[in-house]
Amino acid sequence: RAIAITDQRNSPTEDEDQQER
After folding, report:
1. CA angle 8–9–14, rounded 5-degree value
2. What is the pTM of this model?
3. DSSP tag of 11
4. What is the mean pLDDT of the chain?
5. Closest Cα partner for 18 from 4, 2, 3, 9?
6. Per-position pLDDT tens, the chain of length 21
7. End-to-end CA distance of the chain
């Protein structure tokens, strides 16, 4: 999910998936 890396700052929902970062 390369898009989630940039989108994690916009969507709290994506941050849940990128919680490992």
Report:
1. 20
2. 0.10
3. -
4. 58
5. 4
6. 566 566 555 555 555 555 555
7. 12
